[in-house]
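User: Show me a protein chain along with its predicted structure.
Assistant: Here is one chain, sequence first, then structure tokens.
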Amino acid sequence: MLVDTNIVSYFFRKDTRAAFYEPHVKGKTLFISFITVAELYKWPLERNWSDENKQRLIQYMRSYAVLPFDDQLAWKWAELTVAAKKAGNELSWADSWIAATALRHNLPLVTHNGKHFGKVPGVTLISENRENV
């Protein structure tokens, strides 16, 4: 399954919301988009982390399999963003890449921000945030 950036961050920061997703991810192969890596690598730069905390994040990220950019993903992203715009449902830059990754690899998406992806046809969402689905 594909794990959204917010879920990865919940587990990394030991946020209490991680407990909601433990049953969904435990024992599963967990994938993240290359965009999630970039989003999380921004944190140390924005927040002026110590080298030790940067290394802790880098180590933690190794527990996920990163799905890289490829030509099929680029086409899926292009299709998705054009269709969303025509439907009046534009996605953020990062969310559009995450949704395209889920579609490209036919993976369910675990997210706490279901409303960000709820109007994307074909994306199977797993979310415990009932206000956002």
